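Repro:
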Amino acid sequence: MILSIASFLGFTLLVALIAWLATRKNVNSSDGYFLGGRSLTGPVIAGSLLLTNLSTEQIVGLNGAAFEEGVVVMAWETLAAIAMVITAMFFLPRYLKGGITTVPQFLENRFDKMTKTLVSGLFLSGYVVILLPIVLYSGALAVNTMFDVPAALGLTIPADIASTLAPQELLELQREYDFMALWPTVFTIAFIGIIYAVFGGLKAVAVSDSINAIGLLIGGLAIPLFGLYAISEANGGDSALDGLSTLFTEHADKFNAIGDANASVPFATIFTGLMLVQLFYWGTNQAIIQRALGAKNLVEGQKGLLYAAFLKILGPLMLVLPGIIAFHMSQHPESFEFFSSGDGTLKDQAYPLLVKQVLPAGMVGFFAAVLFGAILSSFNGALNSSVTIFGLDIYKAHINKEASEAKVVKMGQTFGVFLAIGGACIAPFLIYAKGGLFAYLQEVNGCYSIPIFTIIVVGYLTKRVPAIAAKIGLLSGVILYMISQFVLKPMVIADGGTYPHFLHVVAILFVLNIIVMLIIGKLKPREEDFVQQYTEQVDITPWKYLKPVGAIITIIVVATYIYFN
């Protein structure tokens, strides 16, 4: 235990020291703080993209979904690679041409300041109510499960009381204890995240991400490997391939990428809302695209996105396979001590339990540090993007138009502290969310993701659609989605009916809002065509291998689906 704690603290402090040395002179200007001085290279962008995405809401949540459903949930990973190719080809050249620091800045140039402010408000509300709490909750859940924090805090049910309770009563009482144990862990993660993201800026986040990315790849790939070996040994085998063969034999239904109508990601949604959600996330979500906006030129930005796309293709090895391994272990509790609860294993605890089950003692501290880095990465990414949006799109634009760059950075930092505290206060309550962590995240995100994506797409693909159309499209998208998912859907289900999958709803509203915006553009067009100006802040010559590399990535994704069909 002492060795594990020492290795955890040692690796975590080493990453912090390297990040501080790399960024201590780089946070007094807007570009330096918000975009890392527009100096990021392809490998750094790729590593930061990977870590920002692969936090515990992905590692814990997606493996939890795979624990229940199998490889059908890999759609969230494999299709992301295609979305990143499209982002590199379509969105990034336009962003860098305009020299924008935030996505809402483009909307001000294309429509007007009020449109930018509405989108900035949506981003910030989404981060504080949805993303930040989910990252903090999933991270705290992983740490608490791996290190049995509730027991260390004395928050466990005494054996004499547990023996008198029915299974459901026992589960509910344990949930209460786990809820109380989440608070100190959540606020510890938030405090450290504030130091990184608020006082270090984007480059501190990007540098620490790149270092942790290496550890995450090593540890993330080691977990399923050790898991397969453990399954093999339990069945008298001696190789990971034997373990994989056991999974294929005993759980063939878990390896069907098509799934059925009741799957959380029905195959048909790939052709409707799933790709739209992916394009929003990788192409317009400030917390993600900000890494590419900090590229030293278009070539490095496109390289970073495509390097990351290749890594996303490997994502199911870390984000899906471990969940299936954990499911197998839960069906054989006699061979795997940490899965002694059998079918009672909670799916969002599947990955942390697997880590405890299979990792050699000497690697526990290292992997805990890497996982902690992944937790901080998504938290830092969302927090840094929130600080950026508030500082430039709200404070500078509306509150103090004459503020110096240093003042903008300082006010953004102050806002970030309060935002982090707000997210931390919400996070522990997510233990009561129904349907699993990952499903909750994706459905709630639809409130703001597709309305924003809609007006950005229309903004780039049209020249005469006016600002009023963007405002109507934005507000109608948010309101209609909320009515659909949180009013109509519960009513229909309560009456015993069936309701369209939320990804189909996303696609329907996307098309509907585009039609509304185009009609408004036809009836009341802008007086002049919108023409994007080249600010010449970075070179926008595209990478010469962009198309062939993008085609290879797309072919690999299609081949993966064919193989698992």
